[in-house]
Amino acid sequence: SEIGTICDQVLSITPQTQEQVDILRNVSTHYETVLWQPVSNEYISTQVQAHLYVPANTSGHIQFQVNHLCLHVYFRVLLANPNELTKMQMKNDSTDPRSSSTFYERYHTLEEIYDWINRTAQDNPRTVKVILIGSSYEKRPLYVLKVKRWWRKNRSISKSGFCVGVDLNRNFDVDWGIKGSSQNPCEEINCGPFPESEPETQAVANFLRRHKDTVQLYITIHSYSQMLIFPYSYTFDQAENHNDLLEMVQEAAQRIKRYYRNTYTYGPGAAILYPCSGGSDDWAYKLGIKYSFTFELQDRGEYGFLLPPSHISGACNEALLAVKTVAVKVLEKTQAPANDHTI
């Protein structure tokens, strides 16, 4: 049947022939649609699911192509009304979010996140320190929390929840602009005009450069696809400590499966996903941080980038278990006491 146009939809489309791949690539290049998965239309291929966001106001020409394509290939509607999920994510009934038992089961505004950061530091002056490392493109402060000698990076996102401007995970100076990226500012995978062109990238890179001799573990957390990734993503060459990195993510994936019955794919980024340049994990690894990872959280496409608040707890539990598993392994590998390491 044809795809309706009453409301926005997210479709899962699996092309069967090269002609269908070409049609889907053509559709996904127009601004009226957004390709959620894969990250670039160059990675659309036969027998592989593609997730496409189709707005209700899609032009008749694009709508015809989508309908024509879906009449001849396997497809299903992942989300029939993603706008409702977006509204659900922004809903917050509490005047003081921290007073609610469901604080960690909701999405929060940037102001609420800043408030949480400041209150956490004030309530725990001996164990938590807030460090300003720079400002975002929108001149918002970028903070690092130093917690019992653990480093955590915090970064703002766009209010709409969708990618805006440069993809920061393609803006780092490692094989920049070569694979899986674009210098077209209208592309979702825009790598920027030059490496570290964005203030957010500069802030993180400068911070890591200053502390590269003490930072042992770097983890960047993304969504979605449920993957535990390690270098390299920009090349199919194996990292020097490939076996150690593989052992860590394998154990993390196994523990997530055992405790939460959820499956995570794991391995080098280029091998299990696609070649991609300019990633922060590859850059950190090349800087000398030999335990560097990217965690892609829930889910595998049922909700995609619009994970409902009810799933936050599960996603966080899985991520925390993976972080703890990897961190303990790093401490074992570096053969130093847990209270004498910067991670």
UniProtKB/TrEMBL annotation:
Assigned keywords, A-Z: Carboxypeptidase, Disulfide bond, Hydrolase, Metal-binding, Metalloprotease, Protease, Signal, Zinc
Catalytic residues as annotated in Swiss-Prot or TrEMBL: 296 (proton donor/acceptor)
SMART domains found in the cross-reference section: Zn_pept (SM00631)
Entry annotated with the keyword Nucleotide-binding: no
Cofactor(s) listed in the protein's UniProt record: Zn(2+)
Molecular function terms from GO: metallocarboxypeptidase activity; zinc ion binding
GO-annotated biological processes: fibrinolysis; proteolysis
One Gene Ontology term, aspect cellular component: extracellular space
Pfam families, sorted: Peptidase_M14, Propep_M14
PROSITE patterns found in the cross-reference section: CARBOXYPEPT_ZN_2 (PS00133), PEPTIDASE_M14 (PS52035)
Record-given protein name: Carboxypeptidase B2 (plasma)
Organism listed in the record: Oreochromis niloticus (Nile tilapia)
High-level lineage: Eukaryota, Metazoa, Chordata, Craniata, Vertebrata
